[in-house]
TrEMBL record:
Pfam families: CoA_trans
Domain of life: Bacteria
EC number(s) reported in the record: 2.8.3.5
Molecular function GO labels: succinyl-CoA:3-oxo-acid CoA-transferase activity
UniProtKB keywords: Transferase
Organism: Aromatoleum aromaticum (strain DSM 19018 / LMG 30748 / EbN1)
UniProt record similarity statement: Belongs to the 3-oxoacid CoA-transferase subunit A family.
UniProt cross-references to SMART domains, sorted A to Z: CoA_trans (SM00882)
InterPro entries cross-referenced by the UniProt entry: 3-oxoacid_CoA-transf_A, CoA_trans_fam_I, CoA_transf_BS, NagB/RpiA_transferase-like
Ranges annotated as spanning the membrane: none
Name of the protein described by the UniProt record: Succinyl-CoA:3-ketoacid-coenzyme A transferase subunit A
Amino acid sequence: MSKVYPDAGSALADVVRDGQTVAVGGFGLCGIPEQLIHGLRDAKVKDLTVISNNAGVDGIGLGLLLETRQIRKMVASYVGENAEFERQLLAGELEVELTPQGTLAEKLRAGGAGIPAFYTRTGVGTLVAEGKEERDIDGKRYLLERSLTADVALVKAWKADRAGNLVYRKTARNFNPVVATAGRITVAEVEELVDTGTLDPDHIHTPGIFVQRIVVNSRPTKHIEQRTVREG
């Protein structure tokens, strides 16, 4: 059975539902699965819990889902340049769980590896520690952090073969590999699709066993999150 779908809408049609947890790759606007986010918006599913490093910017990436009020809760590392995120947060309309960036990455990695929880020193003695189990190990204090998995994972890759093996490009790799393994169903948006066996096995970042569906977006928009220019 082919993993390749003609567009984002068809790849998500029988996968996404109200109330799901969706993990989304990317860092700022780098390496985001833009067409899949558009497909999620167009599916009109609501009450979503979205796990992502941040919520994009107004009108781009996950900012689109905030505008349509499809996100009920965000699990993220930082707010980002998103006025709608801040407005909904301050109004009490959006539940937010802020997590240190490295801890968020490890929560996803551990979830994908079948590890339910782990101890870390990050956050000890801060607001992050509230309500969490603590333990002394070798004379140092650690927090117990629960791992993360998602009903659906949306990732962006540079290349894929038809078996779903993925190759990321440079910094666009960021959170995508750990998001890919944490999803029960993982859908990958790729710029280039090649025949199975074409990719060098040593260059594959995410094995195809983790990827159930593929959508090709050969001409993605290369957004810039913040642009600073010098007056001439």
